[in-house]
Amino acid sequence: MAKPPEILLLSDPRQVQAWTRMLAGTCLRLWPGPDSLATDAVFDVIVTDQQVTEDMLPGPAAGLRWSRGEIGTIRVGEQGAADVRLPSDVTPRELQLACQLLTQVVRLRRQCRRERQSRRLMSQLAFRDPLTGLPNRRVWEDRLVDENRHAADPAADDPSPTRTMPGILGLAVIDLDHFKIINQRYGHGTGDRVLREVSDRLAASVGRSVFAARLGGDEFGLLVTGDDPAAIASQVEQLRVACCSQISPCVTASCGIAFRQTDSDHDATQVFQAADQALRRAKSTGRNRLVRADAASAAIPEQSPARP
What we know:
The protein is of the alpha/beta class. The protein is built from eight helices and ten strands.
């Protein structure tokens, strides 16, 4: 059974009594002034002959709902801002119908808002890593597919704001060094905090030319575009160092990077595999460094100097 419309009458006591008599015997639930409501009460419509302000409503929750249109306003008499304006000689039937119809409108607004929130939540669950808030592995893989599609048809009309422009694509994989030791020594709560701090710093770098995602565990992916592989490698190296700087307990990161022309037919997944292999070399040659996948390309140093 549908909940009856909840109507707040907001005026002087004499006018409230007059409206109460006009609305008596209907399915409407009437509240004679804000003092009759709890601060968390959910009502639908305000009937008033005044200019409504948030401080006239019962609590901040009602003020918020009213400000975003989830409480309707019927203004009787003087002209003013309201969802519905009625003349001062309004009939009981007109007032009753206005309350009933406006209640349907505001409840529909609430339903639409709940559905929007639900869609946003489902999108976050599907595409965002719940711990760090970064795009997850699914988004990363979709992005690689997008890169391949763009390479196959660079002139395609793609409105996606994440599509790279022609130039060099650097694909990097960053992995925290000895992260299992942090979890074992300090606990998983500390490990989670470290992951969030690293992720926050990577997220701060995201822009038109940088895309970051959490691939799983303590592994992160970066896509960086530019005109010069050496400049891209330098940028990734700065991010590798900065994402771990001044974090307690102390943590470092290893990184593998590979490159391709953004309009090349070289599969982005293969570039990712090459970057992952470079990461393994970074791990096996001392950690805390960046290693590139192809020592013969782009005149990029094979590895940056190891940092203490």
